[in-house]
Amino acid sequence: MYQALYRKYRPQTFDDVVGQLAVTQTLKTQLVSNKLSHAYLFTGSRGTGKTTSAKILAKAVNCENPVDGNPCNCCEACRSIDSGSCMDVLEIDAASNNGVDNVRDLRDDAVYSPSQVKKRVYIIDEVHMLSISAFNALLKIIEEPPEHLLFILATTELHKVPATILSRCQRFSFRRISQEDIASRLQYVAYQERIDLEESAARVLARLADGGLRDGLTLLDQCASAISGELTAEKVYACLGIAGTQKCAELMHCIAQQDTSSALKLLNQLYADGKDMGALLDEMACLARDLMVLKTSPKAGITMLSGVATDEDALQLCQKLSSGELNRIMLTIQRTVSAMGRSASRRMDAELCLITLCQPELELDNEALLARLTRVEDQLKSGSFVMQAPSCDQLPAENAGDAVQDQHDAPVPENPVVQADELPLVDTIENEAPVGFWADVAAAVRGEVNTPDAGFLSASEDSPVRGILQGDRLLLVCTNPFTLEIINRPEILRVVALKASAKLGRQVRVVLTDRSGRNVQNPNLEDLLEFGRAHSDRIDITDNDE
Hints:
By secondary structure, this protein is of the alpha/beta class. The chain is about 50% helix and about 10% strand.
């Protein structure tokens, strides 16, 4: 019968326990010097060796031929404990035996002397699951047990164990096993099992194990049984249904470049490949955490990375993302993941999360504003700050001519976007546009501007933006300040002017206004322009349409 790898390669001596030298060395010293306590409490996260060390300790105290504190695993006592036939060494699951009656039965049986070995040992796993009355029933016998009795308690949630129990036990904390130790052990097991395991795949499994060697062995067992031939990192990603370091780095690059289209396209590809959206966002959060650590502490942070991305990718991303952006990325992903359990579409949640991360201007909360400000600050410090020209700048003649040539050879407006003086009330302005004019212009703009912002332009009655033609001016009337903020972008207004000019066959200028006819300029844009004029000798003002 096939035996799972974590059971087959469970350590049999203290020297075999991985990554817990402080605990094992102390226990060996107590065994050699015969200074054992009557009760021990092993704490730590899952898969770090608590129950394994408890079984080794039970064998060591009863071994007939111990070797430097380790059990010999050859005598009759060791073999009976390993096989589970020893009636004096009992392993109890407190999760299913947590009542006061169970503890009373244990207490009544514990007073009897052992029949097969030197000491009667009780290993109580997940002891924090005992009820309060069960803990109270256990207090007296743990405080003053018979000489032949040894208690070993194990728990993953130390804060749930009463202080009265803690004060009666020697406590040993099992640390999370390092990724290097887990990878080394996985390669040893793979060699013994004749599994062709690449070093990169071992590092991936070690990272996914999250400090638990048992988890790492289980993942290795799963991948080895599903994949034939060499076990590579890519095959591990495919077998476990996770995106992998390369895809996570690509998504983060899209976020850094604010490339919403590429991010959604990559997410759709990963979804089609069967990747779990929750696991993908978890990987993204881990990557953002690594980047934050590396950005905050460039030298010491190298040793704290989880290995989600390669060092080269991490360094590139650190240069592109500010601390405020990384903080916003982590918080946004955490909120999305926590809400996924109540959502009907995990894919939609992931898509909305990516859109929000790629376009911080869609939100006006403190986190989004901080992300945008810190990005500008980092660019100013590095000298890479480039200010875009204002929307009223004239388009390059050659580019504008090519664009309009495709639209029935319409003339190019010399100044397509203007900021006019205050207009009369919008309701009093007569719309001179022909039938279907605004509907055609809005549809043409949406077809060319491939961003969610263009979706605000519509001919429907409840559209947040209306188009009113007055002579050579096209008034874009926004119903609220938020819509005005979104539409007031050069890449959108220029296309509106070009499409309207092509439709009418004459030059049309765009005026952005609200319902009252009052033209509202973007104060943030004006501040940046004023800053650029004051520092024109150090800032390169270019018209970047890419």
